[in-house]
Structure formats: structure tokens, C-alpha cells
Design goal:
Elongation Factor Tu (Ef-tu), domain 3, 6-stranded antiparallel barrel, elongated, alpha+beta, 5 helices, OB fold (Dihydrolipoamide Acetyltransferase, E2P), conserved putative lor/sdh protein from methanococcus maripaludis s2 fold
């Protein structure tokens, strides 16, 4: 009976194996049929624009820092106690405006004393002149000796010198008295006061206030010695302009400055040369000590090929773009990029004007594969106007200054 059961199990096992194999083969056949029946993927949808050609500036991009056109630290020229203050911290000051008053009473007393000394010296001089004039009338009659005559004449000269010394002492006393009233030497903005009423100050040692003139304002920056010849050429022709803006400003908001200063030596440690541009700053948009972006316009490149920045892609072999050919296939085209112009970038090699390039959708594009160009996309770069405005604004503002 055991033998019979063993044969039955073997029979069922052998019978089940062909059935499982047949079922597996049938499943694979169905799967293969489904794969073959799947529809082909459509070409990827992309946005395309045309490369444009226009004149663009060739420039140096530098980082600079603003500095006040004039900066003065106010110090007293006489010693004494501060008795008055006539401004508030941060005020816009006018040239000649009264700032501080040092106790003037001691210096007024010196003026009065000097005036009295001068009057005394003048009285002595007048008496000496009268006596000398009397002696002059009788000297020829030998009524007085020659020695007495010379003594009287010398007395007049000495008294005349004493009058001049008294006049100088009075002038000094008046100047010191005027120094008690401290005025602003320039138009500018006041910083925080450094002394208060009641403080005793010393001449030329105690700082009272810092004043900085903000309009116009400087932008100090550097260039490498390799760029120096081009900069010197532009400066010699008087056409060197700098477009200056804050890092938070748009490029269209850059303000034109005239480059008036080029340092007389290259810095040994850095190999750079210091330059300075002067800009109008009536609205106090720039502030001393701020970092600024300085675009130094050297020349104009005619007919440069421009594409939007986002159209250029980067691979291990360098930048490239997808060019959409007439049959709607995408060609991977290596290019060389030049300087950025606002939202666009110059293509120096690899692309011709009016060629269509892929602006968006590059991730799904295969080199040589078909693409579907979005009919709603513009034929020219939407950012072209912005780049053109940037160029024109620089040239226009440069011509005005």
C-alpha cells in the first residue's frame, strides 16, 4: 500500500510540472505582447527662441566701495568748556553753520586787554612823535645836542614797534575769540557727536564731530595690471565711464560715474591699480563705506550674438545649447560664452544669429531626436529687451555725465 501511495504522489507531481510551465510561458507571451503593443512616446515639448545680434558693451566687472567726497573731523583750536551745541546727530549741515560754542569769556577778556595795550602803545607813540617834532625844529639851531636828537628819534621807532606788536596781540586775541564759535567747514552730514555740553576740550587734540559730504560721492575700486593698458587708452580719450550700482539694485538702476583718478603705481602685493569714479548722489542713494558693483565700460562689441542665460547648459566638455533645426530635430551644439549682458549672455563661437535654440525643456531632449516646439513661445528672447535697455541706459547715462 505504501508503494501505491508513493507512485500516486509522483504521478501528481509529474502531472503538475507541465501545467505550471505552460502557465508561465503563457504569462510571458502575454507580457511580450503588451510591450509590443505600447504606443511610442511623443517628441518632448520645448520652448524655443532665436539667437539675436546687437551691439553690446565690453566691460570690466569689479567690486568697489563708496567713500565721501569730503570728510572732516572737527577739532577745537582753543581750550575751554563746551557751553552750547547747535545741531543734532545726523543733521545735514551747511557750510558755516554754528556747531559748538567754547566758553568765550576768557578770550573776550584777552581781546579787551589787548585793545587797552594797543591804546597805551599808541598814546606813547603820539607823545614820542610830538617831542621828536619839537626837537627837529631846533636841531639846526644847535639848541639840543645830537645825542638827545637821536634818543628822541629812537623813542619814536621803539614806540612804533610796540604799537605794531600790540596790534598783532589784539588780532591774535580776536582770532582766539572767534575760535570759540566752531562752524561747519563743509556742506555735509553730521555723524554722532563726540562731546557734550560741559566737557572741557583741548586744542587740536579733542575730536568733536565727523562730517562727510555725500553729494557727489566716490566709488573706489581696483583693476588688474593686465587691464591697465585698455583703461589708460580710454582715460586718455576722456571716454571712460563706470556704471555703479548697489548689489541690491537691478542692472537698469546703475548710475553713470566719471572715472577721474588712476593711481600712479601698481600695488606690489596684489598686482592691482586703484581707480576712483565720481557719481552724483543728490538723493543719498549711495552711502560711504557701502560695497558697490562697478562696471567699467571699455568699448562696444558690434553685432554680438546673444541668447538668454537659461538656454546655455553645462556639461563635462563645457557649455552647449540645443539648436532646433528646420526638421524639428535637436542638435547638441558646443558653444563658447562671453560676457553676460543683463538676462542674456554673449556667444562668441558656435552659434549664428536667428538660429533657434531650446530655452526650456532641455531635460527631455535627446541629441538628434525630434522635438515639438511650443507654438506659444516667442520667436525672439523675451529677455532681449531687458539686455538692450541695460546697454542703452549705460550709454545714455554715460553721455549725460
Amino acid at each position: 500500500m505504501a508503494t501505491t501511495m508513493l507512485r500516486t504522489d509522483v504521478f501528481f507531481r509529474n502531472a503538475t510540472l507541465p501545467l505550471a510551465t505552460a502557465a508561465l510561458l503563457a504569462t510571458m507571451a502575454c507580457s511580450r505582447g503588451n510591450v509590443q503593443a505600447a504606443p511610442a512616446m511623443p517628441p518632448p515639448l520645448v520652448t524655443a527662441v532665436q539667437a539675436t545680434a546687437q551691439d553690446v558693451p565690453r566691460y570690466l566687472d569689479e567690486i568697489g566701495r563708496n567713500a565721501a567726497f569730503e570728510s572732516v573731523t572737527v577739532t577745537p583750536q582753543v581750550s575751554g568748556r563746551i557751553v552750547e551745541r547747535h545741531f543734532q546727530d545726523g543733521d545735514n549741515l551747511r557750510r558755516g553753520q554754528l556747531l559748538f560754542v567754547v566758553d568765550p569769556r576768557p578770550y573776550k577778556a584777552q581781546v579787551d586787554s589787548a585793545q587797552a595795550a594797543l591804546a597805551q602803545a599808541k598814546a606813547a607813540l603820539d607823545l614820542a612823535k610830538i617831542q621828536f617834532a619839537r626837537d627837529e625844529e631846533v636841531i639846526e639851531a644847535h639848541a639840543i645836542s645830537k645825542q638827545d636828537y637821536d634818543t628822541k628819534k629812537n623813542t619814536v621807532d621803539v614806540d612804533q614797534a610796540q604799537v605794531e606788536a600790540a596790534e598783532a596781540a589784539l588780532e591774535t586775541a580776536k582770532i582766539n575769540f572767534e575760535y570759540c564759535y566752531i562752524h561747519s567747514p563743509i556742506d555735509g552730514r553730521a555723524g554722532a557727536r563726540l562731546v557734550d555740553v560741559g566737557n572741557v576740550v583741548q586744542p587740536n587734540t579733542t575730536s568733536l564731530l565727523s562730517i562727510q559730504r555725500l553729494d557727489p560721492i566716490y566709488a573706489n575700486f581696483t583693476i588688474t595690471e593686465g587691464d591697465l593698458p585698455a583703461v589708460q587708452k580710454q582715460m586718455s580719450s576722456g571716454t571712460l565711464k563706470a556704471a555703479v550700482r548697489l548689489p541690491s539694485d537691478t542692472e537698469n538702476a546703475a548710475r553713470s560715474g566719471h572715472v577721474e583718478f588712476l593711481d600712479n603705481a601698481v600695488q606690489n602685493a596684489t598686482g592691482t591699480v586703484n581707480l576712483r569714479a565720481t557719481m552724483s548722489n543728490s538723493d543719498h542713494h549711495f552711502w560711504p563705506g557701502q560695497f558697490v558693483d562697478v562696471k567699467l565700460v571699455l568699448s562696444t562689441e558690434k553685432g554680438a550674438v546673444l541668447i538668454p542665460n537659461q538656454a546655455a547648459q553645462i556639461s563635462q566638455r563645457g557649455p552647449f545649447v540645443y539648436v532646433v533645426k528646420s526638421d524639428d530635430t535637436a542638435e547638441l551644439r558646443p558653444v563658447k560664452l562671453g560676457q553676460r549682458q543683463g538676462d542674456q549672455v554673449v556667444v562668441t563661437e558656435g552659434l549664428a544669429p536667428n538660429e533657434r535654440i531650446v530655452l526650456a525643456g532641455q531635460m527631455l531632449v535627446r541629441p538628434g531626436g525630434k522635438v515639438r516646439v511650443d507654438s506659444n513661445s516667442a520667436s525672439t528672447p523675451t529677455s532681449n529687451a531687458g539686455g538692450k535697455t541695460t546697454q542703452n541706459s549705460i550709454q545714455k547715462s554715460g553721455g549725460q555725465s
